[in-house]
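We modelled the chain as a single entity of 178 amino acids. Its sequence is:
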Amino acid sequence: YKKQVEIIESTFTNRETYVTAGNQLGKDFVAGFIALGAFVVCLHQGITCRIVTTSVAEHHLKVLWGEIGRYITTSAQPLMHNKGGPLTVNYQEVRRHSEADAKNPTNYLVGRVSAKGEGLAGHHAEFTLFIGDEASGLDDMAYEMAQGWAKHMLFISNPNMTTNFFKRNVKAGDLLAV
């Protein structure tokens, strides 16, 4: 789908990408693809990688992680370590298997619900990505925390009424890099 290809390209070529779309239009489908795809490419390239996904509530984050899980389990190449792949998969967390038992892994793809931004700061690595699902409901603090470390950010949401960073940045439109 052409719009999903645009989202993928924008996420990897721009610092911030904002997507507004209605229900059942593939927002979580493409966000899950981006999250897992970036993690696997970084693994293959030997690039350190930290990807954090967040949403306004656990039940929203489960939808995005359902898509990530579907990609993992239906991949033509095994991804889960117990099937011969390179990844250890836990609840809303994917790690390189070599870091499965690490207390502080260098590489991860995680899901975090954080109402005020706690847990959303300090995820530094060579490649970093922050994905905000249901972004019209995210607190400005979540956006501010990601500013310090995320080299790429994807924010997706229904066009709900809001006054947060999502609305302000969508309204600002495309901005040229300085």
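As a brief sanity check on the tokenised model: The two ends are 31 Å apart (CA to CA). The helical segments are 2-13, 27-45, 58-74, 140-147, 165-172.
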